[in-house]
Amino acid sequence: xxxxxxxxPREVPAADFRDYLDPATTAVISIDMxxxxxxxxxxxxxxxxxxxxxxxxxNAFHREARTLGVxxxxxxxxxxxGGADDLAGIPAAWRRTFPLHVGPIPNAAAHAIEGSPWTxxxxxxxxxxxxxENKRRLSAFYPTDLDFLLRNQRITTxxxxxxxxxxxxxxxxxxxxxxxxxxxxxRDLVRGTDxxxxxxxxxxxxxxxxxxxxxQDLLAGWKQGFEA
Amino acid sequence: xxxxxxxxPREVPAADFRDYLDPATTAVISIDMxxxxxxxxxxxxxxxxxxxxxxxxxNAFHREARTLGVxxxxxxxxxxxGGADDLAGIPAAWRRTFPLHVGPIPNAAAHAIEGSPWTxxxxxxxxxxxxxENKRRLSAFYPTDLDFLLRNQRITTxxxxxxxxxxxxxxxxxxxxxxxxxxxxxRDLVRGTDxxxxxxxxxxxxxxxxxxxxxQDLLAGWKQGFEA
Amino acid sequence: xxxxxxxxPREVPAADFRDYLDPATTAVISIDMxxxxxxxxxxxxxxxxxxxxxxxxxNAFHREARTLGVxxxxxxxxxxxGGADDLAGIPAAWRRTFPLHVGPIPNAAAHAIEGSPWTxxxxxxxxxxxxxENKRRLSAFYPTDLDFLLRNQRITTxxxxxxxxxxxxxxxxxxxxxxxxxxxxxRDLVRGTDxxxxxxxxxxxxxxxxxxxxxQDLLAGWKQGFEA
Amino acid sequence: xxxxxxxxPREVPAADFRDYLDPATTAVISIDMxxxxxxxxxxxxxxxxxxxxxxxxxNAFHREARTLGVxxxxxxxxxxxGGADDLAGIPAAWRRTFPLHVGPIPNAAAHAIEGSPWTxxxxxxxxxxxxxENKRRLSAFYPTDLDFLLRNQRITTxxxxxxxxxxxxxxxxxxxxxxxxxxxxxRDLVRGTDxxxxxxxxxxxxxxxxxxxxxQDLLAGWKQGFEA
Lengths: 228, 228, 228, 228
Prior knowledge:
The structure is a homotetramer.
Chain A: E1 2-5, E2 8-11, E3 26-31, H1 35-38, H2 55-67, E4 72-77, H3 94-102, E5 130-135, H4 146-152, E6 157-163, H5 165-178, E7 182-191, H6 195-209, E8 210-213, H7 215-224
Parallel strand pairs in A: 3-4, 3-6, 4-5, 6-7, 7-8
Antiparallel strand pairs in A: 1-2
Helix pairs in contact in A: 5-6
């Protein structure tokens, strides 16, 4: 079975990772594929332009996963209008730190505001999919009900795709690990701040948290079985 | 005020970060400075040898912080003898993934076992310090009472030092951020898997989570005020 | 200051409870005042008919609280259509236990379903109010973002009104207590399963968790100061 | 199968509660059976004298449960010496409210202090048992690692015995319910503040949270099967 360990492709025995590989107890967690990150516009409140490249590949992966009965959970940031959980409360740190690197973000105050177009999904969200729509900071797990939902569905493996490999995806992978989910991150379906941090985040996942795989290898294994 | 943003030293106005800089509402969180990571022996169950270099610098920083009334919270991994929360339950992921990079870890089963010498502190822990001794996986916050403790002490800023910049420190910084603490990571008092991942983890902190500082700059500011 | 201790009115010194009494750090948490509990119809999926009596008194209290700048947080149960977090997952215990006492509840499967009329508020919810709309079981705090929201607003005292004194209100008061909020339950603005359990739940609050007060006494104290 | 519903014995079909009755996925949670509650002395810092009557019956039940392979998890309150998580932080509410009912508690400041005799177990705790020793307020679940531990052991049913039926036991039963454990409270092995509140707490459990049973009925069923 091919996985990526610290930037290198590696063959590892699937037998060593059986608990990671059963689609019957797996959910796909797709993070923050919404217009607030992906819109190609100077008004985009929290730009993650590199993730635009994976919109269609994520859609294609989700379609295949659904045919195998794997639930898709779409998670996104939504903040209360009025700012009670962010700008009018204790503001998120990234609002001050990220601009130190990229410069001012003119429309950041509009990020994720409930009811605004910025919270609209860009990837396909089907009625049978599951949605978690109150991510407030970086993690998909806190303060949302994602863990509650996954436990109800007796999910034990989570497969991540989506935006900000070195931020929300990595944070969510840490949380999933601490909650004892088996963690897989799909190397070709996540995008980070830039190449170096994306690569480093994947390396961290591969050393500390779980498996880094290509989506086609995971799909092929789910369908045909994983080579021992 | 000097901070590090994506590997570069930068002068930023202290006035922009006033809520980060008050020692009266700050605690230092020192992570996993115990023999199980730091022992210079082939039996060391979870080696983090690079962090040996920061034992004395951390001690020196803690002594200064104590004189300013800043509490030190020492957090470490402790696992129940018998394995109920790890090897005899759902095993931690790193046990299978980290060896893919570094090769077999002969004594890994002994890691953090309650009552064993591997859980002994290497840094100075004084009676007035606070201790959190049931970290079970990577985060200092879950499933421990660290957040409960910090709220009781009305702490709003956390300063991290200690081991595995790209693992437990980064995970704890993510959690602290999501819980809305103001986060500072001390660049000279943390060590990671290797230089590149250590550097990348600090870059992630600096972009998404809070301030990366040198300990001497923080101490000097606490003592003499931060230059606007 | 009048409070109720184990069913008895008592005068206690306000000076002993100063940290409970500042409206500037207080929020009102109004629990489950929706049609799914309150509708006067045989279709009502989870009937709490006794709470109908407090709809208008709660509205009146909220109006006064708003004039004093105290935020109102309305919390309600909402379950995903399709049942992933309840009937099609691990079903809530009350579905099997409550009918042992009251007999079959014909429309229980419709309880709290997202998008259905059963989730509509019965009390007044104004645009400036705050809403938590993903309570999944009994507590207002888990797995919702209520604690996250209150911390962002630097709230330290919570005042409860609403439905099921001996169930969701009591559960939420326990949680608030464990999170170190100062807890007040308004005796005249909560209703339980029946008189004895309502009374017992208030006694438990008064012994273990915080203050049981009449809403008029709290309002009068907020306006005119509490007599020492 | 005999259960208690709102103070009345009732025969219910075991087939309706199969998910509650498998010892292979069950743990016993024994709460706060320590000298700080049970010591027969005027110095006892948080007296729960009625629970002295169940020390031996609890021991007997635990012995039988162990022979069936059911793990016993002993949970107790322990507070840091120095008071950082209680008296020198945000003090627990009961310190001010419980004395309104029972009068001053002279040695309350000594309650649960780490390293003191007041934290010693009174019931038998065997080496193979599991221990959770950082309960800080009322719940066995927060801010402890009890949920983490139970998930690691793939426990889905929790059986409660121990002290303060209407306080820590009830709170823990609420939490277990919200976390979707199947909940059983052993009517003969818990004791509350007094008869009425103990009875009311059991009624609340029976209506909202799970099954109230006699320990002998549960043991007999575990051994011989539950009558349909």
